[in-house]
Fold these 2 entries.
Entry 1:
Amino acid sequence: NAGVTQTPKFQVLKTGQSMTLQCAQDMNHEYMSWYRQDPGMGLRLIHYSVGAGITDQGEVPNGYNVSRSTTEDFPLRLLSAAPSQTSVYFCASSLNRDNSPLHFGNGTRLTVT
Amino acid sequence: AQSVAQPEDQVNVAEGNPLTVKCTYSVSGNPYLFWYVQYPNRGLQFLLKYITGDNLVKGSYGFEAEFNKSQTSFHLKKPSALVSDSALYFCAVRDWIKAAGNKLTFGGGTRVLVKP
C-alpha cells in the first residue's frame, strides 16, 4: 500500500538548472496538489489538479509548471531554479475535490545554490 | 480570502498533562477545518476535520478539537499528552463556497514538545 510516492527525496541544483519532481499515487484519487513548506510559513499551495487533464494555479505558482496526463501522476517542473525555491516540497492527493482528507508524500528537500 | 493563524510557535507540556494547540481562522463563507500532524522527515498526517454538526470533533490518537463559530477558533486538545505526541501540528481551513477544489490554507504550524 504505497499511497503517495515522491522522488527524489533530496536534490541539490545550481541556479538556472531545471528539474522535475515526481509524484505518483496508487489510490485512484481525483485531486492532487503540490505544496512547499518553509519555516514559519506553513504550507503554501503551488499548483493543483482536480482530474486528469485539468490543472490550476495555487498561491505561489511562479517558476513552476505542472501537467496531469494520468490520474496517478502529477509531476512538478522547475523551469530555471532560483535560490528562493530552496524548500521542502510535498505532493498531496485526496479522493475528491471536496472535503476528503489530503494524503501526503514524504517530501522532497530541494536546495538551490 | 481564507487564512489561518496559529499564535504559538511552540507548546511545552509535561507527559500526562492536558495539551491544547490553538488555531483561529478567517473565511468569508462557512469553514471546513482540519488538523494535521507532521513527524520529522515525514509528510503531514490527517488527524481530524470539522465540516458541520457537533462542535466537538474526535480524531485519531485520542485528539479532539472544538469548533467555536463566534470566536472563529478550532483548538486541538488531548486530555493526557504522551511523549510520542511531540511533533509539528498544522491547522488548515477551506472556504466551502469560495475555494474551488480541495484547496486548503495552512497555518504556520505549532511545535509540541512533551517532556517525560
Entry 2:
Amino acid sequence: AQSVTQLDSHVSVSEGTPVLLRCNYSSSYSPSLFWYVQHPNKGLQLLLKYTSAATLVKGINGFEAEFKKSETSFHLTKPSAHMSDAAEYFCVVSDQNQAGTALIFGKGTTLSVSS
Amino acid sequence: GAVVSQHPSRVICKSGTSVKIECRSLDFQATTMFWYRQFPKQSLMLMATSNEGSKATYEQGVEKDKFLINHASLTLSTLTVTSAHPEDSSFYICSASSRLYNEQFFGPGTRLTVL
C-alpha cells in the first residue's frame, strides 16, 4: 500500500521569502514521487519528479525537492516566493516508475503569497 | 511534453440525463488513461484506470454502471456519467500515459454541474 501525507493544508508566505511545503510518503516499493501545481480553474502542471536518480530534484519555476529515504520525506522548496506561485500544490506517489501505474495524490497544500 | 485535451471544459445538465466527457491524447498514443474526480478544495481521487482495448478497472466505491468508461483507441477515452444527479457535480480530470513517456499527462479538466 502506498500513501502520501501533506503536513500543511495551508501555507502563507510573503513575496521574496522562502517556501517550504512538506510531504511524507509511505510505499512498499521504491517510490516515484512528484509535485504538481494547480492554479485556479486550470489543469495540473508537473513541477518536478523523483525517479530514483539524484535525490535533489530541480523543477520548473525555481522549485526543488529533496528525496530523503530515511525520513520518508519529499519536501518542496523555493528560495524566494513570487506572487504567481499562489496555487494548490499536490505531492504524489506511485509505486513504480511505470507509465501504467496510478498516482496517489496527497490532500494538497494551498500556498498564499502576500505582497 | 505531450498534450492531453478534454471536451467539454464545462457542462451543465439536468438531473437524470447522461453526459459524455472526452479525453484525447493529441500527439502521442496513450496505452493507459486514468480518470480522476476532484471535489471543491479537495484532492484528486482516482476513479478508474483504462487500457486501450480492455475493460476499465474501477476503484473501490466507484459505480461502474454509473460511470461508463470506454477506451476504444490509443488516443481517445470517454467517461459517460449516466443518470446524473446533483451529487455527481464535480471536476473530472483525465490523464494519459504511454511507454514512450515515463509520466502521466493531465487534461485541463471538465467541470460538471448537475441541476
